[in-house]
Amino acid sequence: MIILSPTFPTYEEAAAYVSSYNLDNCRIVSDNPFVSPVPLEKMEHYKLIYSSEFCIMEQGARMVPEIKIFEYVK
Asked: How far is Cα 28 from Cα 45, in angstroms, rounded to an integer?
């Protein structure tokens, strides 16, 4: 159950808010499946080998391929 859904301009502010409550069931999430709500490390050694011609609309009216396949290369 969602009780409260505040928004924050930065991850650090969201993390400080969550940690101030000391609750195990508090999570930082995003309403956009294309945007991570937490910092991610850059993925290296991946090469795009396929991108579908069919696209879907991302929030913000940007079109993105339905499918992308990457190959791990060393």
From this structure: 28
pTM above 0.85, yes or no: no
pLDDT at 51: 95
Task: Report the C-alpha gap between 65 and 57 in whole angstroms.
Answer: 9
In angstroms, how far is CA 2 from the centroid of its own chain?
A: 19
- One domain for residues 10 and 22: yes
Q: Residue 22's CB: how many other CB atoms inside 10 A?
A: 7
| Domain boundaries, position 28 | 1-38
Residue whose C-alpha is closest to residue 15's, from 1, 24, 27: 27
Domains: count for the chain: 2
Going by their DSSP bridges, the two strands 46-51 and 55-58 should be labelled as unpaired
Cα 60 to chain centroid distance, Å, stands at: 15
